[in-house]
Fold these 4 entries.
Entry 1:
Amino acid sequence: MAMSGMRQVAVGVGAIERTPPDAVLKEGVPLLLESVPEHRRSAAVELAHWGYGATAGAAFALLPARLRRSRLTGPVYGVAVWGLFEVAVAPVLGLAHARRSRPRERWALLIDHVVFGFVVGTPPEAGIAGPDGDGEPGGEPRGDGSGAGGTGPEDRRRGA
């Protein structure tokens, strides 16, 4: 959804003539879009884009945890998703924009895929705080000497 917002701005300022989801549905699989009532096609294009993004986000979750912890992995992944579309998907579907030089549009799409990468990539310090704000789910303090508490549920029952 963050990319959709960026995409609307890019279209509004004239950096992008036609969004990739729109091109994919209108040029790559037109029969699919023609099966949608005309007054619902804009919504169908947007939902398709969200579906692509959700699929790419789910695929990101399959990367090894040690890679996902890096701040750079998300943006690099976003650029890779964009590159895959530019190099493979658009030419295979025969999209018109794949055959034109369009540097301003490519930069705009690259930037919104970097934003996508920041959204799907989780920075190492982004933990979910428990009710006590201790960074542990369920509010259980850690008993590891980290300064985030010191006793677990069994220790509290024993009076420790």
Entry 2:
Amino acid sequence: MLEEQIFLVVLLRRVRRSPAEEVLLVRTKWRNASVLAAVTVLLGAIPFATLQLRQESQDPRPAPQPTYQAGCSTVVEGSRVTAYCHNPYPGADRVQLHVECDRWWDVDADTAPLLLRPAGYGELTGRCWKEIRSVWVSHQPVKADADT
């Protein structure tokens, strides 16, 4: 039985391959080599990626404080505008309504700032004599005092 297997191996080695089979064999070798090279590059990059993550986690600079802005919606009715603002955040926010009028002779207006404390609600109103060109609400977060 062993002799028959050895004979088959010797016989298979003596068989000549066609040029198409040799090209297929070469393509397979190049494909295997390119896959091996890609895997090697990826495995080599893993230590650099973990080193980068380690350096980012050890950054001595403090993280910036989040800025909380109250949510405001505006409603324009003719020449009047109303802004409804609600502050769901733990920090206070000072909001102000700005109205730009469409006519050149109409005076643009800004309302007085309104301080919205946490969970606070407020309405701001403004108007023009004629049409309104644009309205917007500006936000100015208030720094927390030591007393509050």
Entry 3:
Amino acid sequence: MTDEGWPGKTRGACCCSAVFLLMLLAVDGLSGDLDAARLTVWTALATLLFVVLLPSRVTAGPGRLTTHGLLSRRSIRTDLLVSVHWSDGVAERLVLRDLAGAQVVLDPRVLIDDPALWHLFDVGVRASLGRGTLLCGATPLRELSRRAEREISRTVFELSGGGPAPAGGQAPGGACIPPGSPRRRGRRS
């Protein structure tokens, strides 16, 4: 199963870098300063922008989640997770680590926006909880579960002809809550 939104995000990165290059070439062309050296520099800058904007492609299978970057491929076993946490920084990132020490960092929106990927991830997390390997990450998983279920409920509501779902409506959470854990509203562990 592959992230359904990846092709659109890739086209967006390509379009942004192409527009950036065209703007730079237009400004230089209109000012009369465009030459081969400047064309090379502007093309390199546009290529760098594309590399920065290009999202990792996320694929999942039974018990496995993989991110494919431009030059790297990282894979973890979701049925053998040991920790889940939110990374600190400008962009929201979910950091997953499995029993073998492998680590994957991804945008949580990828899981939230794709019900099929979410389902495969959730099944793996439940297996980790059942095996007792997942020792750290109950709070991020509860928050992620609430957000994914809310998005899925909103989509089902809209597809059933109910119109736009109310912004404040929430689906029942707890798909990834370990038995006996208290429900808290905190986002970070």
Entry 4:
Amino acid sequence: MRVVIGGTHAGKRDAVRAWGGAPRWLEADCLLEGPPPAGDLVIDGWAAWIAAQLEGEADNDRLRARLVQTLETLLAAERRTGATITLILKEMGRGIVPMSRRQRRLRDLNGWLAQDAAARAEAVYYVWHGLVRRLV
């Protein structure tokens, strides 16, 4: 699994496209429908998926556990099929801390997702102003 993280409009998608290949692009919410499809995947839209989940789950630990389980499912699919799965994650931790509890929860859970994904990934890239740097 690869993780590509950076701020809004930092060039994350362009960086992934520059690697070539023809991966299937998906939004994270499709993972709620069942196992991921076979083949190389790029999965984006994690912040929107987390935001939608906040309404139905008041416990951050349970929601984080659900995210970790999703990562484990993706890793298992990748090992089983030999495909490459790339996660595109938004960096939210470099701005002003939001006033609303809901926005703080979103930011916290997004940060935990980034940490949990990076801990499991074989490669982590940070994109800033269109510049790509491999961290791991």
